[in-house]
TrEMBL record:
Domain NAD(P)-binding: from-to ranges: 8-148
Transmembrane segments: 240-261, 273-289
Name listed for the protein in its UniProt record: NADH dehydrogenase
InterPro entries: ComplexI_NDUFA9_subunit, NAD(P)-bd_dom, NAD(P)-bd_dom_sf
Enzyme class: oxidoreductase
Pfam families the record matches: NAD_binding_10
EC number: 1.6.99.3
Keyword entries, A-Z: Membrane, Oxidoreductase, Transmembrane, Transmembrane helix
PANTHER family, sorted: NADH DEHYDROGENASE [UBIQUINONE] 1 ALPHA SUBCOMPLEX SUBUNIT 9, MITOCHONDRIAL, NADH-UBIQUINONE OXIDOREDUCTASE 39 KDA SUBUNIT-RELATED
GO molecular function: oxidoreductase activity; protein-containing complex binding
Length: 365
């Protein structure tokens, strides 16, 4: 049976592809920067090579003796030395060169829907550059461009869930950027895995670029409401942010202004008859805030306002729930016709809505 190298095999999508390859009897080699990442694949009989694919000699070692390369490495947030340019472009360049030098002809490349020349986000720009390198490589390449990928453990649903529920969001406010109008066509991770694995021996898929999209189109707002409904959490959507602003003002008064006034009064020995109305009004305010917090508030924010705000948050917080780059991508629709891939690779698409309860249960556990 053929030996397949999977770069990025330890990631969310990579794990599904590696598992499917192993089930089908392929010999699988996985490259990783750290053995810590391989826990979920431990029971599988894969070969693991540890190193940095931006080092050409490691890329060469990984490609030695394999029959095909599935190249999945990619990032959604730049961190330190791991820039989009390095991870998407430089590593792809290395993988192409290492494949050629080792006589590996078959190269399956992971890109993303929305890549194009002069794309707005640097994620899409660098993914496009990487695609062009693959297309001009003279290898037997196939490129896949998925929309957002869902499944147990996916980053997309997890981020939204954590923002909608308690973590990172003490005031339970959720901004709907431009009304959450952008459209998405989520595809199941198992379908993505099938597409890659079925394409390996299929010459009809050589030199083709396939969008991969799921069976349903949702607006971002619809996805958020599905998540809220599943959690049976009451919410309110407001187009004019009256409740949102009043909640922010009440929180500022309760947790900042009132305690400061109280401290000042203590130090300055204010008169005793000051304390009763002070404490009563504080109690009343806290009760009002508590009442208002019974519902999550989803409020519309124009992207022109949200972008600079997210830029500031990104500079202040180490792992922000959303980055400017993600916001730029979320402003665009991520939908496409994937009937060619469905037909060629015989995909039975799984619905996001159907799997969502299981995805959320796994996040909550
Ligand atoms: N998830 C989606 O919704 C989605 C949609 C469209 C396209 N994609 C693309 O699909 C691919 C996989 O996505 P995913 O969601 O599975 O991502 P993920 O869970 O974050 O996994 C990323 C993988 O890339 C590897 N990696 C990251 N930085 C690396 C670096 N500097 N050098 C070498 N390896 C590095 C990681 O390997 P180690 O940590 O083990 O080294 C990991 O296995 C990416 O190219 C992504 O852009 C994803």
């Amino acid at each position: 049976m053929a030996t397949i190298l999977v770069t990025g095999g330890t990631g969310f999508i990579g794990k599904s592809i590696v598992k499917l390859l192993c089930q089908l009897g392929y010999k699988v080699r996985v490259s990783t920067r750290s053995l810590k990442q391989i826990k979920a694949l431990y029971e599988l009989s894969c070969e693991f090579l540890v190193g940095d694919l931006s080092d050409l000699s490691f890329a060469r070692k990984c490609c030695s003796g394999v029959d095909a390369v599935i190249h999945l490495v990619g990032i959604i947030v730049e961190q330190g030395q791991d820039t989009f340019k390095k991870v998407h472009v430089q590593i792809t360049k290395n993988m192409i060169q290492a494949s050629k030098e080792n006589g590996v002809k078959r190269f399956l490349h992971m890109s993303a829907l929305g890549t194009r020349p002069n794309a707005r986000s640097r994620y899409h720009q660098t993914k496009w550059t990487a695609e062009e390198l693959v297309r001009n490589s003279e290898l037997d390449w196939t490129i896949f461009q998925p929309s957002v990928v869902f499944g147990i453990g996916d980053d997309f649903t997890k981020r939204l869930y954590k923002m909608l529920f308690f973590q990172n969001n003490p005031l339970l406010l959720f901004p709907l950027i431009d009304g959450g109008k952008s459209k998405l066509q989520p595809i199941f991770v198992g379908n993505v895995a099938e597409a890659f694995v079925r394409a390996i021996p299929n010459p009809n898929t050589f030199h083709k670029t396939y969008p991969l999209t799921g069976p349903e189109v949702y607006s971002l707002k619809e996805i958020l409401l599905l998540i809220l409904d599943k959690g049976q959490i009451p919410y309110k959507i407001e187009s004019f942010p009256f409740y949102t602003l009043s909640r922010i003002v009440m929180a500022l008064l309760s947790f900042l202004v009132y305690p400061l006034i109280g401290l000042k009064a203590l130090f300055e020995h204010w008169r005793g008859d000051f304390w009763a109305p002070y404490l009563l009004s504080w109690l009343l305010l806290s009760l009002l805030l508590r009442k208002s917090m019974e519902k999550r508030l989803l409020f519309n924010v124009p992207s022109a306002v949200a972008l600079p705000l997210v830029g500031i948050v990104e500079k202040l917080i180490k792992n922000p729930p959303i980055t400017k780059e993600m916001l730029v991508m979320l402003q665009e629709d991520s939908i496409a016709d994937s009937s060619e891939a469905i037909k060629e690779l015989d995909l039975q698409l799984v619905s996001f809505k159907t799997l969502l309860p299981d995805i959320i249960d796994a996040i909550v556990m």
